[in-house]
Each structure stands twice: as C-alpha cells, then as structure tokens.
Automatic annotation (TrEMBL):
The keyword Zinc does not apply. This is Uncharacterized protein, isoform A. Keywords: Glycosyltransferase, Transferase. Transmembrane segments: none annotated. Its EC number is 2.4.2.3. Residues 9-27 have a biased composition (Basic and acidic residues).
Amino acid sequence: MPPTITSNEAHDFKAHYDRGHSSPLKENEEEDAYVHRITRYSDGTVKLRNSNIELMDQDILYHLALGSESHDLVEMFGDVKFVCMGGTPKRMENFAHFIMEDIGYKLPAGTQLQDISAYSYRYSMYKVGPVLCVSHGMGTPSVSILMHEMIKLMYHAKCKDPVFIRIGTCGGIGVEGGTVIITEDALDGQLRNSHEFTILGQTIHRPAKLDKKLARELKSLSSADDPYDTIIGKTLCTNDFYEGQGRLDGAFCEFSENDKMAYLEKLQEHGVVNIEMESTIFAALTHHAGIKAAVVCVALLNRLNGDQVNAPKEVMHEWQQRPQILVSRYIRKILAQHGQLKSLFGHQGSIKSPRRFKLVQQESQAHE
Ligand code: URA
C-alpha cells in the first residue's frame, strides 16, 4: 500500500502556514500546490493525511457500513469520479435515479439501485457508475462524520481526482424562492471564510475554500432558457436553523424584527446571498483533503420576506430538482469530454470476505 503523509510532511505544512507569504494570490497558489502535493499520488489517487490508517489491520467505515477488508472497495468504488451529497436519503435516491436517466447508465438486467449503506441506519448511498450519491444529514457535525469516511473511502478505493458537490437547500437573502445559488465562499457565523474545530481542547481554523473555477464552470452551464435564475455568491453557514439564522419563529427569540432585518442587511452588504448549515465544514474538509468541491443550493424562500418555509409541496419538489439539473449538466459534460458518456456499465459490489462483511453489518446494527 502506498505511504500516506509522514509526520515530517505534516510539520512542513504547519511551517508553511506559519511562515507568512508576500502576496495573497501567490499564497493561495502556493498553498493549493502544497495541498495537492501531499494529498495525491502521481497517478491522481487520493493520499490520506493520516499515517495511522495504513497501519491498521482494517479500517471500518462504521457510518457507511463498509470496511476496507470486508469489502473490495477498489472493485466497488474505484471508478467513482463524482461524489454528490445532499441532506436527505430521499433526495439522494431521487438524484441517483435522475442522474442514471440523464447519463444513460444501464443497470444489469434484473437489478435495481440499492442503498449501499442501508445497514448503517445513518446515511444512504447509491452508486450510478462513476457517480456516488450520498445523504449527509443536517448540520456540520453530521457532514463532518460523513466527510471523514467518504475521504477515507476515496483513498481505500483508489479513486482518481474525485470531485465532491453538495446539492442542498437554503434560505435566500434578497433572492426569490427557487433561485439556484452556487457558493463562491462559505462563511461561518462570524463571517470568517473558515471552519472552527475544537481538537484535543484546542481551537483551530481551516480555510473553507471551494474551487472557484468549478463554481464558474457550473454557472456557465445555467441556461437563458431556465425559467429561474442561477447566481454565484457568498453563503453563510450556521449551527442552527432558528435563532442561528435570525428567525423570529423558533421556540425562543430574544431579538426584535428590527435586529433581524439589520443583521440580514449586514449580510447582504458582505455579499452573502444565502444561508444554510453545511457549507463551511464541507469546504474545509474537501480543501484539507485537496479535493475539488462545489456547493449548489436552491433557495426555499427569501428571508427578507419571512421565516416560514411554506411553499406548496409540489413547488418545493420542483425547486429541489434545479440544483440536480445543473450538477447533472456538469457531470454529462465531463463524461462526454472523456468519451465516457455512452459506455457506462453497471457494477455490482463484491464481497472480499463474507465473514468480515457479516461482522461489519452486525457491528453497525448493534449500535442502531
Ligand atoms: N435551509 C436552511 O438552513 N435555511 C433555510 O432557510 C432553508 C433551508
């Protein structure tokens, strides 16, 4: 197995951060090149920044109900190019069916899409050829757990240069419900472009950087014929849906409507166009892993007009397909560029060790 990052490299990286840099542009390029160097092997496969993993007898991806020795992860996932994530299992199942149709992927006769992580009772995962569709739950802790295991899955499966895209919902600020919003920068509750972690009692920040080129490419795939707007802007990520997003309609509210409106206007002045609850952790962990990533959400309401999400169910359903359509256009484009659009064949997951496979299933079920 190829080596992961050494402690010297980790030290190097800290020194690199501590040194300071002459220009922000150069700093960004240098940092990106550095992250790429320590997170990729020369063939593009994912290199982990944790040398403990390769020393382990097996790595159980507990919340996915998968394991490095119970499952043949290379056989099952080695061809994955796109990891699409969204909040709910149902949305990701719908997306899996949608993308299957859109890229013309054919399952072998007599088979159907299955939730690969069903036995975890936590997250859902569907595989459609090179596209993995995974639910991440609500809020940053849930996304964080999934991201650790998805990044490790990319490593174990020897995936080459995977792209991660979050497909979500959000509250718009000054934009109408149904607008598609591509995140340019993810900001935390204090408008910092980073995610705060507490590790061994220490507070650290990791840059919540998304791939700007990918964001522009996604935007370029919106069409003048789309009966809705697709925009790029900054996204505020909060730890709560109610007080944390300045809503007046939670179980508690100790601020006035004027306070709320002043806050939303301040956000607007900063270029914030939407609020959700996952983008900073998603951006921080993909960036730390050197994975190209984007966030595409649809606004469920304009927060300048109210707090309640009350659009009719059918309307909401149609709105939620909009980010999926954009992401599907991107996937089709990339597959077509690589001549892969017409030659997709289904793969069934293979079990390397039935005994260990059973143990992983039982372990996950025991903690249901
Ligand atoms: N998701 C959020 O986090 N906030 C909203 O207002 C809507 C969806």
